[in-house]
Amino acid sequence: MTEPPGEAGPTEWSVPANGVGPWQGEPPNDPRYDPALLRDGDSRNVVDAYRYWTREAIIADIDSRRHPLHVAIENFGHDANIGSVVRTANAFAVDTVHIVGRRRWNRRGAMVTDRYQRLMHHDDAAGLLDYAARHGLTVVAADNVAGAVRLEQTTLPADSMLVFGAEGPGISEQMRAGADLLVSIAAFGSTRSINVGVAAGIVMHAWITQHADVGRSW
């Protein structure tokens, strides 16, 4: 995992969550469980099924059932939207989040979920597009531009790499030219665009509804 450094965010133990106290009764004889968490309790931002598990065990379990969906972030500023996209990608067990351009990013919006999510950095759009080509991924760029098809009327490829750009500049011309498919989200109000973190969540969920086995969700 090639993980770009980021600005300081919440620690594993400072995230507000409904935690659990020390394990009651005989502790489980299972290597997935962390002896310190069993003894002291677990206040981490994880689902109940992962309570008391080590971080390594959680990652291994998610890795065993990640979806073949990749998400890329391009042209983002130094803001919490990157963290928001990472957090949503973690919730949907996305294979990898790719960050294009600037290495450092504000992790606060990720709420520590970046510790469980595969992250990869690319210097530029060419690097990302090359990665997609080498791994057989269909590049789907989300942007409200001429020529984009409505997400609501589109079947997303199972092997998608969804690309999102910052509000305002959107994705780069190079990324737009290299994309296999352009999609847009239908809007009905006065604003030109919706928050990119929200947009990313909408498109990721559209892929989930089309390709994921929701019976395996928590």
Describe this structure in words.
By secondary structure, the protein is of the alpha/beta class. 27% of the residues lie in helices and 17% in strands. The chain contains 6 helices and 7 strands, in the order ααβαββαβββαβα. Helix 3 packs parallel to helix 6 (196-211). It is elongated, with a radius of gyration of 18 Å. This is RNA methyltransferase. Residues 69-205 form the tRNA/rRNA methyltransferase SpoU type domain.
Give the key terms.
218 residues; alpha/beta; Alpha/beta knot; 2 domains; 7-stranded parallel sheet; 7 strands; 27% helix
Radius of gyration: 18 Å
CATH topology of the largest domain: Alpha/beta knot
CATH architecture of the largest domain: 3-Layer(aba) Sandwich
Could you give the count of β-strands? 7
Secondary structure blueprint with pairings:
Elements: H1 35-40, H2 55-63, E1 67-74, H3 81-91, E2 94-100, E3 119-122, H4 125-134, E4 138-142, E5 149-150, E6 160-165, H5 173-178, E7 181-184, H6 196-211
Parallel strand pairs: 1-2, 1-6, 2-3, 4-6, 4-7, 5-7
Region (Disordered): 1-37
GO molecular function, one term: methyltransferase activity
Pfam families: SpoU_methylase (PF00588)
Q: What's the short version?
A:
This protein has 218 residues and is α/β, with parallel strands linked by helices. It has helices spanning 35-40, 55-63, 81-91, 125-134, 173-178, 196-211, and strands at residues 67-74, 94-100, 119-122, 138-142, 149-150, 160-165, 181-184.
